[in-house]
Amino acid sequence: MSTVSEIFADWLAGLDRAAIPQTAAAGVTDTIIDTVALAFAARETDYIAALRNGWQGAPGTATVFGHRDTCDPVTAAMINGTAAHGEDFDNSYEGCPVHSGTVVVPAVLAVAEARGLSGAQAFTGIAAGIEIMCRMGAVAGTGLHKAGFHPTAVVGTMGATAAVGVALGLDRAALARSFGLAGSMSAGIIEYLADGSWTKRMHAGWAAQAGIRAAEMGAAGFAGPLSVFEGTHGFYAAFAPSIKPDLELLAGDLGSRWETAQLSFKPYACGTMCQPFVDCAIDLAKRGIKADDITAMSCKVGEGTVHRLWEPLALKRRPPTAYGAKFSGPYCIAVGLIDGDAGLAQFTDARINDPAVQALTDKISFEIDPENEYPRNYTGHIAATLRDGSVIEAFQPHLRGGTHEPMTRDQITAKARANLAY
What we know:
By secondary structure, this protein is an alpha/beta fold. 51% of the residues lie in helices and 9% in strands.
């Protein structure tokens, strides 16, 4: 009986550009546009400067987006992945918030430049990597976060390996070996939530460069366990021990069911689960509700979001860094109501310390809604109590930019142009 890595390898080894349906191809194109522009937007940030100064790269021909110099593909993938994911404005996936674009696009484009691959080879590799990441995320659900791991980080290494392997034209045996290696290269914990530090930013870049390493080592014959996905000590046993992986969901209907056609693209530069709540806050503002009118705001949330967006509540009301504010339900709601947006400009040191914003975050609390559909669906529900005692509610039934209300190509291009100009 074939293992999951062998089943994936059988499919991936025969995949070509013509086999990708239009709906999935559109998701790939949208992802490339979104990802590259986001990397440009972060080109002058302090964290990219620190990474470039601290990472010992080598000369090469791979582009670092927004910079004049080129370097080796591993370094380019690390920097570009970190930059593209750094503002948490990148694509996602409902079911498990994996950010596939900022992992697989930097990995494949860096290798494609270094190896002189064709556009069709690169495009097919990106499609393959996105598909593997989304399928793995759908199986994991909340299991990865529950165990303390960042889905994009650990799933990303497996996806980047598939992406690079397909772009390079690896055969079945090499692809299967590469997955086995990638399992031991996967890493990324979510302790950044404690103090708003930068490690999450580097997770996409780390996964991208690790995927290159795994694919190249697998191509060279280095052996990895074929049972890496489903084994006793495999990926899901290690990173999501609370779940029993559905292997049919993971590796069934390859080529006919494309999760790549179900991607989400963010309208706001913050955590995926915050997005519908920002929409609710903006809706309240459009209805004439001002921060000074409000005495309390109660938010109904999914239990799986609490440890990332809502607790400890005192910390979430006073995020210690602008980056930490991206994963604060109270902060994102506050700027949504006051500023009418939660874009790149809202996540600065000055804005998180604004007394008006802090006064509103102090009024925001949450309650767990046992009927909340997370992670199958991302909703927002706010009840604002006003000074006159009345209660005004706002409800966002789904993730805007997701499968229920997707962004158009024009909207994604407009977002990209704004990020390129930032």
